[in-house]
Design a protein that fits this description.
five-stranded mixed sheet; about 50% helix; alpha/beta; homodimer
Amino acid sequence: VFVLGIDPGLSRCGYCCIEASGSRQRAVALGVITTPTEMPLARRLSLLQSEVRDLIDEHPPSVLAIERVLFQNNVRTAMAVGQASGVVMAEAAHRGVEVFEYSPNEVKGAVAGHGSADKAQVTQMVQTLLRLERPPRPADAADAAAIALCHLAHSPALTRRSAAIGVAP
Amino acid sequence: VFVLGIDPGLSRCGYCCIEASGSRQRAVALGVITTPTEMPLARRLSLLQSEVRDLIDEHPPSVLAIERVLFQNNVRTAMAVGQASGVVMAEAAHRGVEVFEYSPNEVKGAVAGHGSADKAQVTQMVQTLLRLERPPRPADAADAAAIALCHLAHSPALTRRSAAIGVAP
């Protein structure tokens, strides 16, 4: 089972594809999609769309988990993040990938145990849960990994039940 | 020259395709794309994407003009509108269609002469400019027509120069 975690953004969109098999969770792809700030908005969104399409081709996920966009920060950024998230979700649905949204607090709560965890704690927990040699970088990629892990923690389905009885799905 | 005007939205996305030839402007398509509120968000965005794709296939525009999303109304609606606009812009850019954004005040100013025009005045001007027998309905479609007309009014290019010298482009 592949779960693709996405931390949506237009300048920097974090992604992490996690392969879950029984109790094992392994990152098979982790990184950031960037689009040039000097490019017109519509072309940046189109570029993001084609990069997400390539990601889905490479490791076809059964689920895409994405952070729900909120308005903590400035309104201009939030709108670009919303547009980026719309493009990612449409592409996933178009490809038959099921999409789940999680709030930032749900993500922090799931990986670090409480919704007020800071970035360093989340990165630390992602490193531990995925048994990475180094802390995942950059921060957007670590956040995407946390979102995918959040989905796996919440998912009452195959993965966890299989883990409980020790059988790979 | 076809200009596709879009009033972005997730529940209701207005569209109007205007054929501009010299000084003549004619609506060749006008309506609203709707997506069911009970459908999951990602599937609604994917549905909107495929409807926009069909529109572009039907009357291939050289330009897509879209209203810039602002935050006058409630934050939940604005985010859905932003996601919808992202999907529309990405699809247009993917198809090689140039995208222009206009603020609500620019649109009102261009079709009704002042940025504080109300909906009824905009609808009235759209009806006059496009020589429609009846006021365009629903409001989202009329807004989309106003956005396309705004682009034609701002465009310093072929269309207007041709109009000035009385030659169809």
